[in-house]
Design a protein that fits this description.
The complex is a heterodimer of chains A (255) and B (339).
Chain A: E1 2-11, E2 14-24, E3 29-33, H1 40-47, E4 55-60, E5 63-64, H2 70-76, E6 77-80, H3 92-97, H4 113-125, H5 141-154, E7 159-163, H6 171-187, E8 191-195, H7 199-205, E9 208-213, E10 216-221, H8 223-226, H9 229-236, E11 240-245, E12 248-253
Parallel strand pairs in A: 3-8, 3-9, 6-7, 7-8
Antiparallel strand pairs in A: 1-2, 1-4, 4-5, 9-10, 11-12
Helix pairs in contact in A: 4-5, 5-6
Chain B: H1 5-25, H2 33-44, H3 55-90, H4 102-116, H5 120-142, E1 143-144, E2 147-148, H6 150-174, H7 177-187, H8 196-215, H9 217-223, H10 227-232, H11 237-259, H12 265-277, H13 281-305, H14 313-335
Antiparallel strand pairs in B: 1-2
Helix pairs in contact in B: 1-13, 3-8, 3-11, 3-12, 3-13, 4-5, 4-6, 4-7, 4-11, 5-6, 5-11, 8-11, 8-13, 9-13, 12-13, 13-14
The chains are: A alpha/beta (255), B mainly alpha (339).
């Protein structure tokens, strides 16, 4: 579904991404793990085309994403941003409707009944209809993240990009939001790429994990394949024990 | 507050119509409301009512009061919708044509034209050109690494405003003393010289920009999410923002060209209307135009009837607007939010 080849990116003279390649099929969740400053966020920005890589190519659904028009691109890739600052207290329903922007035809056109129907379906699907009429600014952190997820779904994308979607969330909402993301990846056949801080959540909710350090992919594969004490030591410089719970590894730092 | 969109439209239209007729009957020359309405209907459909009316009806109503009310509505609507547009675009509760320095810039353009190339077209053109220049300057000054801070945009507006005030003084100093009087009077901001010619020159431009801005309201919603998000939703941010700035400037500078610098309407009305109907710009923009029209009618009623001598309407709007600004500065910019 998304295929990136030899992505290179630099700010001034410092290379941030050095020839990163990755491929993801539909329905799969890929989590990028790595310390701050490793280039994870830059990679996400290249993948959703908000940054243009200096070299390399990215294909989404067989189309060269770097030469697509912004509207077409927004129909293929949706992004959930790390920190969302709401300037106006838009109603939840209106905010989600903005996800239909890539489908507007003319310069002055506004959403159609069909667009509104798409929004209603998503509200039901994510079970957030009960606060659809409330101002977005009055919601809790978890509810907000679900609304932004709903807006991303309204774009009816093939690829979903999430930059630390759980950063502002408490334990319960972290589990809730990541659970929804994984469920949606399966149901809507989305290719999901996200960054997370906590390797254990990555283990629980992803099909693939890529360890990124200094702009390079250090290891890449299924959680069972790549998450081991060696790699954790290499990437984070932290000694860990790898335990197992119901067939899924989980890691505990040695203290 | 109000639930349905249609309901909002009805309420705002009723308020405007009510204010219009109230203002029409108000003035130093008193008319019988019934006779006045008969007179007006007779003008539109001649011969519907038998009777004749004294010449005072013709002079006072048709040549003085009616053009003044229509101009007040146009100017109020233009300044208010420009304020709403800028607040949405810059996500900034404190901006409006006056605080951005746009009004002073347009004022300079108009003063320049009045001094050296008098004429409706040159006044409108130069007002638009320097209004746009002022807005772009203020925005450019406040722009830092992809965003503009709430207060720095206002400070930039103060600087730009000071610059154009100085240039206005220069024009006044250089101009022929006979023209000076006209410029000074016009700069005070008022509607007392309103004429049908003013309406003919500013009206089409103002109505055009109100319609266009209202049509772009939904896109302004998306733009108000911030550049990064709007872009990720497939919007051409630069093109849409430029278009909205140009249209809002066209509305505000056309208003300045015919009425001088009347401040603060674009600050107060958008906030009040947003509190009543919510932040959706596809609805907020046209309704704030209606609200601004009604508000300037009332402010102008006060200006022309509250005291023995008529005072410039800009004095009234500033007396109301300055405390409102202080309130917003204290409450909104601290929280960084909108209620």
């Amino acid at each position: 579904m998304i295929k990136a080849k030899k992505i290179f990116f630099n700010y001034e003279k410092t290379p941030v991404l050095e020839e990163i390649s990755l491929e993801l099929k539909k329905g799969q969740v890929l989590t990028l793990l790595g310390p701050n400053g490793s280039g994870k966020t830059t990679l996400l920005k290249c993948l959703n085309a908000s940054l243009k890589p200096k070299r390399g190519s990215i294909y989404v659904d067989g189309k060269d994403s770097l030469s697509l028009k912004p509207k077409k691109l927004a129909q293929l890739i949706a992004t959930l941003f790390q920190s969302h600052v709401a300037a106006f207290p838009y109603r939840v329903r209106d905010l989600i409707l903005m996800g239909r922007a890539p489908y507007l035809e003319g310069f002055f056109s506004t959403p159609t009944l069909e667009d509104r129907r798409v929004v209603e379906d998503i509200l039901t699907e994510l079970e957030i209809s009960h606060f659809a009429d409330r101002p977005y600014t009055q919601l809790s952190g978890g509810e907000r993240q679900l609304v932004l997820l709903a807006r991303a779904l309204a774009q009816q994308p093939r690829v979903l990009v999430l930059d630390e979607p759980t950063a502002p969330l408490d334990f319960k909402n972290t589990v809730l939001v990541l659970g929804k993301v994984k469920e949606l990846a399966r149901k809507k056949e989305l290719a999901v790429i996200m960054t997370l801080h906590d390797p254990n959540y990555a283990l629980l909710f992803s099909d693939l994990i890529a360890f990124i350090k200094k702009g390079k992919v250090l290891a890449w594969g299924t959680p069972g394949e790549v998450v081991n004490s060696d790699n954790m030591k290499k990437v984070y410089g932290v000694e860990v024990d790898v335990l197992e719970n119901k067939g899924v590894p989980f890691i505990v730092p040695k203290i | 507050m109000f639930k349905s969109r249609l309901g909002n439209w009805i309420i705002f239209s009723m308020i405007l119509i009510g204010t219009f007729f109230f203002s029409l009957f108000l003035g130093s020359y008193e008319f019988q409301p019934k006779e006045l309405i008969k007179f007006l209907i007779n003008r539109i459909v001649p011969g519907l009512f038998a009777g004749s009316w004294p010449d005072t009806y013709e002079t006072v109503i048709l040549n003085i009061r009616l053009p003044r009310l229509i101009l007040a509505m146009l100017v109020g609507a233009a300044l208010s919708i420009a304020g709403t547009s800028f607040q949405g675009l810059f996500k900034n509760p404190l901006v409006e044509p006056y605080t951005l320095g746009l009004s002073t810039g347009a004022g300079f353009g108009a003063a320049l034209a009045l001094a050296f190339w008098p004429g409706y077209l040159s006044v409108s053109l130069l007002a638009f050109f320097f209004g746009l220049l002022a807005a772009v300057l203020a925005y450019g000054l406040a722009w830092q690494g992809g965003e503009t801070h709430v207060v720095s945009l206002v400070l930039a507006g103060v600087i730009v405003s000071a610059l154009f005030s100085a240039l206005i003084s220069l024009v006044q100093y250089l101009v022929d003393p006979l023209k000076l009087q006209g410029i000074v009077f016009w700069l005070m901001g008022g509607l007392s010289l309103a004429s049908w010619k003013d309406i003919q020159s500013a009206g089409p431009l103002i109505i055009f920009s109100i319609l266009m801005l209202s049509l772009l309201g939904w896109k302004l919603n998306v733009l108000s999410l911030g550049d990064t998000e709007a872009r990720s939703l497939g919007l051409n941010v630069e093109k849409n923002r430029a278009l909205i700035v140009v249209l809002a400037t066209l509305a505000a500078s056309s208003a300045v060209a015919v009425s001088g610098v009347i401040g603060w309407i674009g600050l107060m009305i958008p906030h009040i209307v947003r509190m009543l109907v919510g932040p959706d710009h596809s609805q907020l923009l046209p309704l704030s135009a209606l609200g601004g029209a009604a508000f300037l009618l009332i402010a102008d009623d006060l200006a022309r009837t509250a005291f023995i001598y008529e005072i410039p309407v800009g004095v009234i709007t500033t007396l109301l607007g300055a405390p409102f600004f202080a309130y917003l500065l204290k409450s909104k910019s601290k929280k960084g939010g909108w209620t």
